[in-house]
């Protein structure tokens, strides 16, 4: 079979699924890359773990697992592939490496950072521990391994409240997202000491924007991520992790929905829920968007951009992530 025909045969079923969110002219560029990456994955016994904010050609075209950060950490631990390509941001790749240190973990673009992760250093955490002696430190996974190493336990947006309450303390230091800290505080009696970090994607939404859309679409259901400011969360109908939002749409099938989060999320969820109408005022995450098919192909071909964590840091950071995984997801 001619190569062009072979590519078409293998990628057409993928395109049929995502044709609503990717124009045909764009798919002509993606299809050969999707085909090559999927072949190479098999050859090299590699697995592609992708976050929910990845573009539809990555999420639906090449990912073996596409999910929120908690599920990606769990899947990284379970995999028996030799190579993990993490289509997401740097802290997600580091977390995968912590969960499965013997695997080769690759990040297609080493510039895929996160405003929350860069808002705090290990030194800052040490300073807080000196200021509040004996108070346990709960750290959001959106941080560097160095920060995790200074923490008692990690959490994600899927289990933050459960993790905080699991410690049995009356006070915890919760880092680094000030809005997530406020959200957790609104749900627990444990006193939360927070930091000043924010997500540059979620902090830009306003309650006014949501109210205006609700006025124009009275039947709309609004879902928010807990990284949003409190007044945005208050204006919404449900708050949860990226997979929490996705599950809400899948199980409740609202007529009309708005996901107050990163742009690709709505496209990816829309593909699996064709009967739901999506209103899409969204903000792009510039870090998530550094990952592209050509970069995935290059890093898998050359096995470049490997994540390496010094043993002295990884030993301590791993404990914090493993404690979180043992607690699991909130219901
Ligand atoms: P989730 O853990 O909900 O997938 O969120 C990760 C993230 O970076 C959100 O901005
Ligand atoms: Fe970080 Fe926000 Fe991007 Fe998530 S969306 S990776 S929290 S900057």
Quick gist of this model?
By secondary structure, this protein is α/β, with parallel strands linked by helices. The chain has helices at 3-18, 24-44, 56-59, 69-78, 90-99, 122-131, 145-149, 160-166, 178-185, 207-216, 230-234, 242-252, 263-272, 293-302, 311-327, and strands spanning 46-51, 65-67, 83-87, 104-106, 137-140, 153-155, 171-175, 191-194, 221-224, 238-239, 256-260, 277-279. The strands form three sheets. It has a four-stranded parallel beta sheet with strand order 2-1-3-4, with helices on both faces.
Secondary-structure map:
Layout: H1 3-18, H2 24-44, E1 46-51, H3 56-59, E2 65-67, H4 69-78, E3 83-87, H5 90-99, E4 104-106, H6 122-131, E5 137-140, H7 145-149, E6 153-155, H8 160-166, E7 171-175, H9 178-185, E8 191-194, H10 207-216, E9 221-224, H11 230-234, E10 238-239, H12 242-252, E11 256-260, H13 263-272, E12 277-279, H14 293-302, H15 311-327
Parallel strand pairs: 1-2, 1-3, 3-4, 5-6, 5-7, 7-8, 9-10, 9-11, 11-12
The structure holds 1,3-dihydroxyacetonephosphate and iron/sulfur cluster (SF4).
Description:
This protein starts with a helix and ends with a helix. The longest helix has 21 residues, at 24-44. Strands 2-1-3-4 form a 4-stranded parallel sheet, sandwiched between helices. A 4-stranded parallel sheet has the order 6-5-7-8, sandwiched between helices. With 331 residues, it is of the alpha/beta class. Helix 1 (3-18) crosses helix 2 and helix 4 packs parallel to helix 5 (90-99). The protein is built from 15 helices and 12 strands. The protein is globular. Iron/sulfur cluster (SF4) is lined by residues 89, 114-116, 142, 199-201, 227, 262, 285, 287-288.
